[in-house]
Structures are given as structure tokens and as C-alpha cells.
Amino acid sequence: MPDPTENRFLLILVLGSLTTIGPLSIDMYLPAFGGIAENLGTDISRVSLSLSSFFVGLAIGQLIYGPLLERFGRKRPMYIGLTIYALSSVACAFSTTIEMLIVFRFFQALGACGGLVASRAIVRDLFETKEMAKVFSLLMMVIAVSPIIAPTLGGFITTAFGWRYVFGILAGMSLLILTGGYLLLRSYDRINPYYSLRPNAIARNYWSIITDRHFIVYALTGAFSSAGLYAYLSGSPHLYLELFGLNEQQYGIVFAIIAAGLVTATQLNNRSLRNRSSERIVFLALIGQCVTAGLLFADVYFGYTNLIATTALIFAYLFCLGFIFPNSSALSLDTMQHTAGSASALMGSLQMAVGALASGLVGVLQNETALPMVGVMAVCGGIALTLLTVGSRRMTVATST
Higher-confidence residue: 388 or 123? Predict the structure, then answer.
């Protein structure tokens, strides 16, 4: 069987494309919130529920795909997921009420999960721990490029053709990614015909993973740290479109500038791994994220908010996340070997569940200021640092005994 890693560039490109379906589905339609609200006779806060339903779909869907990836291999569930995604994207484009859009966004997320879970499982299959962190950094760079391009592109598409075309383009992209995955990965798979799909067996398998201290500490650390990003995604349309009065295209440009922090951090992370451990990088980056979040909250709370200062602090917050996410992901999967698919699914599900909670809280707490967004971002960073600090101490004690 040919080794997919022989063509590393194409492998990273395809895996990155599979992973970026989620961010594209989020970022491309953010500038269209105002147009969707006007067209469907609702308000932006109701439109933001379609973002929350997408996060919920990602959280649930990944748990479904985990066992399927173990039993049937990485490819078939991935192909089915991408097909569901394409059909749901078309349904989103033809939605006539906000309720329809919210429901179809949920199914769109279920489809996106196939590529998200499969890509992480394939990385665990093919690479060792330190190499995994480097590959996750490269994947995150591909993911981070989408927020640079997607909102700007979404703003132009919405202005020129209307918001429905955004979902039509997403459907077309998923079919291209499906084709690329088929061509590169057709010689590779990891099938376990003896893996049981009985509910009690699946529950036992997930329980064995979630009770692995090493897995749960780093998975939850990454989940809460990333949840600050979802709080920002949920609150940024209100912040930039309403409070700062930017138009859709200006919002896309600012969004792209902030996302550039992720791209820069992922490249610096690969260099940092040459002389620092993933554990150390995560800890230092979390401290930086918490300090930045505290400054951002104080900035908004005391009324010093302005476009440049707020954007700079959000940029720094996401810059820190660019170090945290790839290393925490690699560390959480490090002890998982024969259950890489399920572990990848559980890790992603935890991230999306906490992300959906953070996103929903921003909407529920909305008071026509930026305080709900920055407050949730600060709390998420603080919880992540606490989990890592306490969890690391307990792992050290357990190892010494």
C-alpha cells in the first residue's frame, strides 16, 4: 500500500482542506448577518442562533463519526459526511425563514464532522507525537488562512449577489474537497471489522478515553482556550457592524487582520518545538492569553474601547491560541493508539460543546455592549489555565506514585 506521507505537501493540503470546512462555514457568512436578518424578517441576535446550532451540530456529529471511523475506516464516513454537507449547504441557500436556516445549519455541521474527525485521526495514524504537533500547526495555518480570505470574500459575495450565494459556494467547495480526498487517500485506510457498534460497547470505549487523565486534561485545556475564539466569532458582528459601525467589507478586512495572528503563531510554534516541549509551550501561551483577556475586559469595562485597541488585543488573544491549539491537540491524542478515531471525535466534540456554550452565552448575555463577548473570552482563558495547572500537578503525582 503506498504511503500517503510520501507526498507531504499534498497530504497536508487535503487534510487542511478537510479541517477548514468548519471555519469556512462560520467565517464566510458572518458579514452576511445583516442581509440575512433583513431578508428573513428577523434581527442579528436571532441570526446568531444559526451559528450556535452549527456548533451544537459539530459537537454531536463528531461523537457519531468516531465509532464509524474505527469500524469502516477513515474514508467512507468522510465521503458520506461531505455529501451531507453539500446537500445541507444547498438547503441553507434556499431557506425562507430563520428557523429553516437554523435547522439546516445543524445538518450542515453534521456533514462537516466527517472531514474534521477523519483528518485528525489520519494525522494520529501517520505521525509521532512531536511530528503531530508540527502537522497540527501546519493544519492550523491552513485553517487560519480561511478567516483571512473567507469574511472578505463573503462580504463581497453578499454585496454583489446576496447571502444565499455564500452557501452555494460552500456546497461547491465541499465537492472539490471530496474529489481531492478521494484522489490522494484512495490507497490508504485503517479499517477494524471487529470494532463493535453496539451502544454499550461505544459507551465503554468513550468512557475509557475520557477517563484517561492525560487525554482529558489537554482536551479540556484546548477546548476552553478555543472557546474564547467562538465567543469572539459570535460577538464580533455586533461589535464591528453595530458598535463600531463598519460595513460588511470593512468588517471582513478587520476580521482578516485578526486571523493573521493565528497564521503567524502557527509558524512560530513550529520553530518553538525545536527547543521547547509542547507542554511548556501550552503553559506559557495560556498565561499570555489570560493576561491579554484581562486587559481586553478592563479596556471595555472602563469604557476605553476603540477600534484599534480592541482589535489589537483580540489579535493578541488569537495569537496565543495559535500556540495552544496544535500542542494541546497533539498531547491529548498522544496516548491514543488503537482508538485514534474515537479520541479525535471526543476531543473535537468537547471543543465544539464548550464553543457552543461560549457562543450561546454571548447571545444570552447580550446587553448592547462588548462586555458579554470579552467577559466570556476572559473566563474561558482562566478556566483553561486552571485546568492545565491542576491537571498537570495530578498527572505528576500519579506518575511519581
Answer: 388
Torsion angle, alpha carbons of 282, 283, 288, 291, to 10: 140
Nearest to 348 by CA among 334, 323, 328: 328
Q: Which of 97-111, 227-241, 285-299 has the lowest mean pLDDT?
A: 227-241
Q: Cell numbers at residue 336, please?
A: 491514543
pLDDT of 338-371, one tens digit each?
676 678 778 878 887 888 788 888 878 888 888 9
> Chain-centre distance of CA 120, in angstroms?
12
Could you give the domains of the chain?
8-184+209-400 (1.20.1250.20)
211-243 pLDDT per residue, tens: 888 889 999 999 999 899 888 888 888 888 888
Inter-CA distances, 109 with 105, 159, 263, Å: 6, 25, 24
Which residues touch 134 (CB under 8 Å, ≥6 apart)? 270, 273
Long-range contacts of 86-95 (CB under 8 A, 24+ apart): 86/111, 86/171, 86/174, 86/175, 86/178, 87/111, 87/171, 89/167, 89/168, 89/170, 89/171, 89/174, 90/167, 90/168, 90/171, 92/167, 93/164, 93/165, 93/166, 93/167, 93/168, 93/171, 94/164, 95/40
pLDDT band at 284 (very low <50, low <70, confident <90, very high): very high
Q: What is the pLDDT of residue 1?
A: 46
Task: Give buried/exposed letters for 208-227 (b at 16+ CB in 10 A, else e).
Answer: ebeebebbbbbbbbbbbbbb
Q: Output the CA angle 293-296-299, nearest 5 degrees.
A: 150
pLDDT number for residue 166: 92
Predicted TM-score (pTM) of this structure = 0.73
Q: Rounded CA gap, 21 and 36, in Å?
A: 21
Cell of 146: 480561511
The one-letter amino acid at 186: R
